[in-house]
């Protein structure tokens, strides 16, 4: 009865500790990936992160119920039981425990082998998660090209590699468990053989021999579970190493201790000799960029793909730290202020308009969940979205499908713009955020944004000249440098790269005044 009672307590508390540990690790893991830099997420595939946060973390959790408890139980049984047996009969005690050195050696060797296979298996499971995640994210592309057989073949190949290694691991564990059990049974046979002779000669009683055999019978099940114990240690060591390697990473972008909040009064942005290269990049993304902008100004950035426009926007919001130079807002270096206050003052409207699986209102108010319905409507109206929402059966309560697949590209971008306008930041950056919007709607959005532009600095990154011809100043970028600066009319008169791009998009006969309107 006592054994059953304590076994129940053991099972309950081992599961309790395991789940509480997993809960704490899960929060720590999620917090860490929320704060790691763009460079980290550019290197890591989301499928690998999902495997790490699910399978590896689950392996650590299971260690408490499948590994630690069994280790404590086996240590107590062998330690206390061994002392009792040795104090009763040294000869039989040594025979009863003769399997321990062999088991310890086999366990060490097997753990090293299993640890290596666990590491490889986790990598193969990461590949499996990566293939599945990519397939689910690209379902429309797969259907459009009729690539289901190819995707099935690819998934089958990756899954078969994981299955083969899993079979190899089972073979290693079973052979090890069989060898350890066999050594235990040999030790038990020796106790029975030698002990029987000692009973016949009168050295010990039948009861003493029975106590030895009873102890070994009790020990038989934990010894058979040694294979699971070794496997649990190997898996936990491997998965724990991968998990804690990520938890130990220091975010490349963070607020220094005690950093003050950004205070914006004049609304003056200064970029001084900004230089930046992505890790392992072959060339510099930005090289000596310098310019200044004041509240009420609209700055346009244009240039070929890879010229550094988006990189500059990300540096202003401090998604990266520059290699050289600095960015000042009202004389404050953005590296010396708290990230939270900087991100409230500088908002980048990304080209990738990601939407969450929730209502339209919640998506628009994502940056400010406490925003009123009226504020959401005003932002939607300026983004030319209010009429579209009004025509929906549930209005702003309409649920958006996963990643916004139920909306068109232009509708998603307008929601992205409304999300940014709701925050009313000091510096608003549009990173080619109207590429999927038709020219008429874009003109109306530009007019609405311009009406409130006196209260902020507006930076527009675009490939279409019509998106930024109204800007107070246009910066033409090429190979990470600013090669031309001026108004739309001045750049046309200059006859350089901007004028060539204008002729390419509109032809030489279109008057600048007409386009600017």
UniProtKB/TrEMBL annotation:
<dbReference type="Pfam" id="PF00664">
    <property type="entry name" value="ABC_membrane"/>
</dbReference>
<dbReference type="InterPro" id="IPR003593">
    <property type="entry name" value="AAA+_ATPase"/>
</dbReference>
<dbReference type="InterPro" id="IPR011527">
    <property type="entry name" value="ABC1_TM_dom"/>
</dbReference>
<keyword id="KW-0813">Transport</keyword>
<dbReference type="Pfam" id="PF00005">
    <property type="entry name" value="ABC_tran"/>
</dbReference>
<feature type="domain" description="ABC transmembrane type-1">
    <location>
        <begin position="1"/>
        <end position="235"/>
    </location>
</feature>
<dbReference type="InterPro" id="IPR036640">
    <property type="entry name" value="ABC1_TM_sf"/>
</dbReference>
<keyword id="KW-1003">Cell membrane</keyword>
<protein>
    <submittedName>
        <fullName>ABC transporter ATP-binding protein</fullName>
    </submittedName>
</protein>
<feature type="domain" description="ABC transporter">
    <location>
        <begin position="269"/>
        <end position="504"/>
    </location>
</feature>
<dbReference type="InterPro" id="IPR027417">
    <property type="entry name" value="P-loop_NTPase"/>
</dbReference>
<keyword id="KW-0812">Transmembrane</keyword>
<dbReference type="GO" id="GO:0005524">
    <property type="term" value="F:ATP binding"/>
</dbReference>
<keyword id="KW-1133">Transmembrane helix</keyword>
<keyword id="KW-0547">Nucleotide-binding</keyword>
<keyword id="KW-0472">Membrane</keyword>
<feature type="transmembrane region" description="Helical">
    <location>
        <begin position="84"/>
        <end position="105"/>
    </location>
</feature>
<dbReference type="GO" id="GO:0016887">
    <property type="term" value="F:ATP hydrolysis activity"/>
</dbReference>
<dbReference type="GO" id="GO:0015421">
    <property type="term" value="F:ABC-type oligopeptide transporter activity"/>
</dbReference>
<dbReference type="InterPro" id="IPR039421">
    <property type="entry name" value="Type_1_exporter"/>
</dbReference>
<dbReference type="GO" id="GO:0005886">
    <property type="term" value="C:plasma membrane"/>
</dbReference>
<keyword id="KW-0067">ATP-binding</keyword>
<feature type="transmembrane region" description="Helical">
    <location>
        <begin position="179"/>
        <end position="198"/>
    </location>
</feature>
<dbReference type="InterPro" id="IPR017871">
    <property type="entry name" value="ABC_transporter-like_CS"/>
</dbReference>
<dbReference type="InterPro" id="IPR003439">
    <property type="entry name" value="ABC_transporter-like_ATP-bd"/>
</dbReference>
